[in-house]
């Protein structure tokens, strides 16, 4: 996961600093602009994911618990890897001292590894929920998800402590400091390969297998719904298929969204993983500054893009995100209504004009379209 140099040259380990950073104004301008843009979008988006799940009751599902863990891990990557990259690009040297080298590198790998584990966890959860729905009633619960997430963070926190003993400040021939390896590549290579297998290869292979099984189950359910039709005319077939699709729509929507998250995780990490894997074995590593910038931007984009996916593919997340912007105004309206109509209580699920109210305690966005009912 780090930029391995040759046995004679120890290049930086963390994803925020590249060896041989270009001193050109063009490189610095492009690097700072892209990193700040991606990191700002990612930080705001991931904070919103955490807030909407923690503050909205109906969003507290087992799957969303794993998404909160993923959002916190992505925030860690963006803050510990992305933001220090701005200083690195401007000065071409490490500016955070020995303690910063240890702490920032630790947090980078912690966020990266927790992201991978969280993706694996919600993939397994989706498989159980769809392929074993009876078992899911007792296995896929919020309390169990919290325990799994706690175990993931404890495991990765302990595992990543290894980096405290692998990195240190190094001074190059030009006098610039770098946060680099304390050990030679031959000693680091087994550690990297184990890390590469545990937090990239195995999660992706598991995701491929489980999503393949999920697709098979959903396809069989669709075929079963079609076969229940009384005739085989096109209109009857279409009606049966639509009925089955409506029944599975919720599972399909969530599963598609999470599958996209996994696919982007694989694609956006592939350039960096491939580069480091190749550099681990060649005598002269490939360390082009522009390509390294591309690899790092892909990593930061992976941590920033998930909230965009949720907003694009989930109606619940879109509504929850919009609710964050209107929260203060709605709370003020609720207090006003309570003052004007003391006989009325919380709003319940009640159909008005063909639409339903939100769960009790949540005020609709357009108050004029709804009516309150006595508690």
Automatic annotation (TrEMBL):
Name the predominant localization: membrane
Q: List residues of the G-protein coupled receptors family 1 profile domain.
A: 45-310
Q: Which GO terms describe its biological process?
A: phospholipase C-activating G protein-coupled receptor signaling pathway
Q: What molecular functions are annotated in GO for this chain?
A: thyrotropin-releasing hormone receptor activity
InterPro entries in the record: GPCR_Rhodpsn, GPCR_Rhodpsn_7TM, TRH_rcpt_1
* One cellular-component annotation, GO: membrane
- Where found in the cell? Membrane
Query: What PROSITE patterns has UniProt attached to this entry?
Result: G_PROTEIN_RECEP_F1_1, G_PROTEIN_RECEP_F1_2
Any idea which UniProt keywords this protein has?
A: G-protein coupled receptor, Membrane, Receptor, Transducer, Transmembrane, Transmembrane helix
Protein's recorded name: Thyrotropin-releasing hormone receptor
| Organism ancestry | Eukaryota, Metazoa, Chordata, Craniata, Vertebrata
